[in-house]
């Protein structure tokens, strides 16, 4: 795969493992063992069985007919919102808990923004009877209260991150500190395609089930396994990477990644990383991130708790730089309106994250026989408060 990772853990200019010496043994252990473990027949059998019987895969590829009529093409929604726990995050959490088990780890830590990855991690820890600690920004704890309650009900300890913007970036910092302090018995389940190598590659491989299924399903729907467009929202970028993965080498498929413009790209309240960012190092990998002239991380903003991350995964940075995928952004307001439109035309209330991808349809022109696949990465239950406040219900 020409867009794949090299032996040093780089995608073109991006990736690698920029980590404190204290973390070197953990990351090195993972790097040396993860491929053998995930390619092992027993691992694959257990992973696939849990995806089928526990998560409910394959998730449907739904032809949204009324929505398609509005935009003048064939729109298919990859329904990751129908997975157990309500988003794509469970795919990776299951892969990593099985990995942690085989590495002999007795304690799991995770970071979460919207809470979906935290819920997925707490879920798999309950399934396997392993201690779980989730770090979450204090502000995200307030705006995603239902997910916090779920994590606690599943037996996880939720630790607020009270530094910086008190959101996802800060939760990630706290989780990294914990891992440095507890290197031997603890596995850190990173929820996105970010962090030091091998995390971006590992998470992408666990999420690649999304595009693997999509090809077969689209063939069944249309007689062709390749669509004209594949779209997904991007914060760190795990649902997008999963959605793009098996289309990367199909150069005719246009890949569109939608970031959060927040209150506007130039408003100072945004998370449009590729528009505003420069190359640098964030959370253990070289990537594109929003930073000041002297290299301080700029606080990101989005109404969506899952997209307000100041960087993107290194694969995305690479795909952006070589123009294999197009990176665009959508404002808070545009995403909320798109969420309402899907709810009222198809009876599906999407997560605000996913609604960012839907909103970009307004800015595109299609031929009537174009096939467009959009990753519906999560369901909107967790965002009802935000929708209610905005629309005044």
From TrEMBL:
Q: InterPro entries this protein is in?
A: Trp_synth_b_CS, Trp_synth_beta, Trp_synth_beta/beta-like, TrpB-like_PALP, TrpB-like_PALP_sf
Instruction: Show the SUPFAM superfamilies listed in the entry.
Output: Tryptophan synthase beta subunit-like PLP-dependent enzymes
Query: Which pathway?
Result: Amino-acid biosynthesis; L-tryptophan biosynthesis; L-tryptophan from chorismate: step 5/5
What EC number(s) would the UniProt record show? 4.2.1.20
Cofactors demanded by this protein? pyridoxal 5'-phosphate
Q: Is 4Fe-4S given among the entry's keywords?
A: no
Q: Gene Ontology cellular component?
A: cytoplasm
Among its keywords, does the record have Lyase? yes
Q: Which reaction does it catalyse?
A: (1S,2R)-1-C-(indol-3-yl)glycerol 3-phosphate + L-serine = D-glyceraldehyde 3-phosphate + L-tryptophan + H2O
Q: Which family does it belong to?
A: Belongs to the TrpB family.
| Subunit field text | Tetramer of two alpha and two beta chains.
Q: What protein am I looking at? A: Tryptophan synthase beta chain
Gene source species: Mucilaginibacter myungsuensis
């Amino acid at each position: 795969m020409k867009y794949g990772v090299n032996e040093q853990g780089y995608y073109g200019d991006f990736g690698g493992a920029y980590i404190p010496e204290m973390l070197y043994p953990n990351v090195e252990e993972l790097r040396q063992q993860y491929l053998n473990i995930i390619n092992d027949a027993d691992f694959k059998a257990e992973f696939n069985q849990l995806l089928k019987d526990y998560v409910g895969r394959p998730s449907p590829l739904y032809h949204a007919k009324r929505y398609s009529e509005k935009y003048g093409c064939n729109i298919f929604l990859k329904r990751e919102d129908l997975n157990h726990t309500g988003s794509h995050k469970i795919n990776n959490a299951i892969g990593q808990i099985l990995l942690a088990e085989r590495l002999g780890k007795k304690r799991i830590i995770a970071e979460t923004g919207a809470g979906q990855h935290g819920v997925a991690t707490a879920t798999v820890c309950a399934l396997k009877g392993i201690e779980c600690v989730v770090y979450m920004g204090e502000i995200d704890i307030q705006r995603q209260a239902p997910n916090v309650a779920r994590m606690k009900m599943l037996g996880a300890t939720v630790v607020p991150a009270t530094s910086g913007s008190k959101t996802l970036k800060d939760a990630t910092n706290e989780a990294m500190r914990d891992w440095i302090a507890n290197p031997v018995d603890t596995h850190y389940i990173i929820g996105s395609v970010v962090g030091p190598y091998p995390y971006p590659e590992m998470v992408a491989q666990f999420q690649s089930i999304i595009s693997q299924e999509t090809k077969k399903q689209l063939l069944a729907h249309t007689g062709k396994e390749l669509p004209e467009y594949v779209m997904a929202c991007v914060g760190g970028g795990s649902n997008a990477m999963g959605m793009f993965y098996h289309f990367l080498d199909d150069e005719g498929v246009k890949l569109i990644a939608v970031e959060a413009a927040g209150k506007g790209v130039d408003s100072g309240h945004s998370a449009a990383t590729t528009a505003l960012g420069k190359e640098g190092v964030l959370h253990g990998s070289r990537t594109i991130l929003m930073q000041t002239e002297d290299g301080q991380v700029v606080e990101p903003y989005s109404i969506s708790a899952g997209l307000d991350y100041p960087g993107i995964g290194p694969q995305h940075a690479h795909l952006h730089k070589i123009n294999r995928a197009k990176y665009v952004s959508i404002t808070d307001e545009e995403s909320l309106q798109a969420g309402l439109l899907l709810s009222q035309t198809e009876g599906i209330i999407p997560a605000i994250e996913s609604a960012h991808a839907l909103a970009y349809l307004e800015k595109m022109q299609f031929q009537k026989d174009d096939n467009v696949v959009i990753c519906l990465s999560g369901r909107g239950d967790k965002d009802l408060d935000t929708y209610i406040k905005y629309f005044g219900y």
